[in-house]
Records
---
Amino acid sequence: MELYNTLSRRLEPLPPAPGPVRMYFCGPTVYRSIHVGNARPFVISAWLRRWLAAIGYDVRLVQNITDVNDKIYQAARAQKIASVDLAATAAQAYIDDTSALGLGRPDVEPRATETIAEQIALIQDLSDRGLAYAADGDVYFRVGRYPAYGELSGQRPDQVQEQEPNTRKEDPRDFALWKGRKPDEDTWWPSPWGDGRPGWHIECSAMAEAFLGPAFEIHGGGLDLIFPHHENELAQSRGAGRDFAKIWMHNGMLEMSGADMHKSLGNDVSLHNALATWGPETLLVFFLSAHWHSSIDFSDDALKAARARAAGFRDAFAGGGASAREAPDGTWEELVAVLDDNFNTPEALALFHRWRSAGYLAPLRRALEIFGLRSLTSSRDVPGEVVALAEARQAARAKRDWAESDRLRAELAAAGWEARDTAEGFTLVPLVTAT
């Protein structure tokens, strides 16, 4: 299997199965609900993990949660609550929303605040090597002493843009490894340089090494993280003598009306709301339709098309899959060939449609389950009492009786079903536990 590597600007092979393949993907900074664009690296990493496991790899996925950060302090002050409380609440919301996608959880989900000792140790190592220096309680990385700086983002070392402007730095390009405690920050830790907390970039270098070792196969995240976050991670870790990541996967951004989806632009749609409106199957088919390295436009038309595709798969399995035919030899190998080529999910989706049309439901069921779409392969008939509960819930919603609506939704869930609201009314989908 080959994947595009941002660092080398070419396709790079994975080791042959069983591997191992160790992956680190950057998770969110938890200060509010994540938007659909934030969910894309979660989905891609989960799919890649599930696919590699299915074809015989020994795979391990680590995805962090950044729970100490300037954005968290700022949001907590605005809400007049403790930053630790805000981070804990937002982290749980992130876990709940991404779990609703039905793809399971990463093998390890470390939080930055749980690995402070490892981060301090790495900063000390960089200081001992002359790559870091203290300044008024802060510690900075010396960009000028790391000649390979800029290789990931493609910037020349003498043209790197300034990061975090202040007068304490030796060089405008230097970036913070440790930040001294400020009076309005309510979370800090002791360190050899005084009380404070880690900079953003050192967190991931330390957590990746702590849970995957000093060298691993894949590091992933959004294209917006290439600079400065991943550039700085690479410099820190290799500057400290670690090989760090071999392949750097950067997924394309979600766009709305041609602009990247960002909280700062106010054009973001929360994952929670998107799930409530469209359901996980539609969102997953939507993500399948674009190559992981490309941008994807989030629009009603795109989501309606994805919902129609999902319904087509569900219809193929309705009534026990009466139209099923035995797939010829080599059918599954077609999918292997497509995904071995830079994990090409749009081609895989096209293949799934061909299998559906041909009635090759056995490989189709297997493939859809790997991509978290097991509920589309269910042939269960909906019991009459379940339909009655869903109709009562719809009537309660029409009366804006939200308490009764929630009670009926809980009854449906206890019976193993979920009612999804649509323009035409509702559709009933069996609940399936993620694996």
---
Amino acid sequence: MVRIVLTSDNHLNAYYAKMGPAVLAERRKRIRERWREAVNYALNHDCQLFLQAGDLFDMPDPRTTELVAVAQDFRRLHEAGIQVYCIGGTHDVHRMSTTGVLALRIYHEVGHAHVFTSAENPAPVVKEIEGVRIAVGGLSVSHTFGRGDDPLKDVVYEADADFKILLMHYGVEGTIHPDATEPILSKDSLSKIGVDLVGVGHVHDFNRFILGKTTVLVPGSTERHTFGEKTVHPGFYYLEVDRKGLQKVEHVDIVPQQMKEEVVKTTELPNDDPTEGLKARIREVSHPDQLLKVVLAGPMSGESFHKLRLRDAYAVGADSNFYFDLDSRGLHVSEGPRLAPDDAGSASISQRQEIADVAHELMRIAPTEEEKALYQEARDRILATYT
């Protein structure tokens, strides 16, 4: 019996623009630990194959810390006699071929992993394991493909083997929005490629379906990476194969770092002290090991808005959680007078509009042209970065 671990979308070296250096370093450490669960599982279950279907790294030029961590893990697998096969995913492969090479090639050159670098030729490798001739081929991502392109067009998979595996990293028809501006693997192409198993990275939630004689497995990610993935179930696949084919398919769950998104409606906050009301809601849903995003949305009177101290509320969230984000883009001010109303019939303005109106009034009453120019520059800079 051949035992296999199939993983993808580990996104080592993930970057979060709003995280401070210390928090980012710890978050990256947690992501490495989730990836290492797949490695340790292969070691602890005497696997013979370890397959990685793209986006091992979150960027094509990962930091030395991540490169060394993977080198250590691949060496452990190699020393245990576990053969490692990898492809480059969307994040691993440079957008322009002239800007560099696939970082994964380092491990290929030292003999600790076999990396499939071509986007057109799967170049399957055939090995006999436990009396089973297994072929593993792979196609790295090509950024030259666009919407409507078929990455399997003209691809030929030829191998004399009992069980054939293909690794790819694209969206599969039915698992990604049909209007996505990217190539999508059609189910028809997958069913005709002539392999027993296709392991497909890219989509972060796991999936499994049968297309004719072909089993398609989407292992998903080993960690949640955005608040939009709060329903994703991280993990990887464990497989058992003999000469008769695929005998066992098990998705091994990984417990992710806690992640929560909470919507707070402005109508739920007290008008006399909205700041304390918001701080209380944040404390209710906080946890020191959690990534928390609070979305503040709805109308608020001008009087209440000027009592709202978002910086104070943010400080409470940042102190009470591993990471905290406060999104107030859905907040809008209504029933508030403008400093310089353009038309009396308008009773509702946005925060962006209020900033512009305040700047307009300050420029109007500025005593000198120099001061007026400073207010105008400040307004333009703020609005250019305000979201």
---
Amino acid sequence: MSARRATAAVLLTLAACAGDDVHAPGSTDEPALVEAAAARPVAAQDHGWIGVTAPAEAVDVAPTFDGVVAAIAVRPGDRVEAGAELARLDERLLREELDAVRAQVREAGAAARRAAVEVERAQYRLRINQAGFAAGTEPASVVEDARLEVRADEAAAAQARAAHAETKARLERAINRLGDTAIRAPFAGTIGLRYADVGAAVGPQVPVVRLVGGGRARLRFAIPMAEVTRVAPGTRVVADLADRAPMPARVATVSPEADQASQLVYVDAEFAADLPDVPPGVPASVRLGDEGLGDAK
């Protein structure tokens, strides 16, 4: 693999990982964009770790269960507020499921009531037999049989009550799922990508849109496993970006394990608050902090 393609591959991985809840599916534009980013001049690229600026917040928004998209309310570039509806899943199958579970709840409730009546009947027979035994008209074995019947009916009633409680829990889940057909923005931001259209099957691992939040860009970079002891949360680093003065940052998180394909460890850092902001997607060469560059706050 050429140096340029290796750089492009690392930049693509950095842009997709470190902090996103779900990795974004690839789009047809990604290879061209990353090749263009890798071709941009970056100061001291041969002497530092490969990095890229990333949005402060970015998440692939997906439903909590599998379903089919019935409507999408946003397009790439749209600005949305926290809680805004981004898309909605088809409710028809969920409503059919809800009706079926309601019927099961009614049936289980009736079974629980019948079991309670059987317990009362067995207890009544036990009292009659006990009175007969006291009067000398019933043998002890009849009383013991009646007592065992009460225990059996009580066990059956407990099982019926448990079945009724389980169906009521299923009903509550079905109601909650119906309320979750609206897919909402977890925070205010801008729609970066739209992965699905109306009629598409989506789920927890198949997102609908990518939401990019505001705030200052972060710095993400990759280091070889052999150098991982040089970087830890709180370590000062410096990012050299094209056409910009060196920008200090402080390491926030270090991945606990290396990427299997590249054998690199990915690091997330925060720029100093008093530095000029930079847009996401800018490639950088990252090195350990120099004393003369000040501290990243």
---
Amino acid sequence: MRSGASAHPLFFLLLLAFLPACAHMPESATSGPNTWDARRARLESIRHWRLRARIGVVAATQSGSADLQWEEQGEVFTLKVSGAFGHGLIAIEGDAASVHLKTGKGEQLGAASAEDLILQQTGWVIPVNGMRRWMLGLPSGLYPDESFTLDDAGRIDKLRGGGWEIEYGRYGLYHGHQLPDRIRMQNEQVKIKLAVIDWEILDANEQ
């Protein structure tokens, strides 16, 4: 267990550790009055994607890092977290109706949300529902107070909503899409750093 006071140095160490995680350099784009509308429409057309990333979490209760694999296919999502506090692999599958978790030991659990399952297993507050769109660089549409600002290339650089603050540190070019590969998220209880290793856009593979 780590106290809130001792967690902050670990957070900055984690940030430094993630710096070499991505080989993709920032991409430039032509800015214009329709840049965001066109970009948003293109991102919202993506129905099947997968990413691999390294996630670092700093909280008053527990801090640490883990490997993350996340796949979205329409309403169905699969989330795999490995290496968090010796739990081995935690796999979460969900859709609009239910969410289930399976541990590396074969245990199976159900809960009202993926957030609840991750909290039970790791002590981490991870905003899964919001991240399903935030990770693409889109507003979640879940919070009435959600707002965002754009950079010169028409991409979201900062977003707020539901008590969360999200900052996009860098974008990379993946399969013809400019997608986030550095994201910081925080609320009053937790700070999260996400460093993307790779994105896969799988829609074309199914045509």
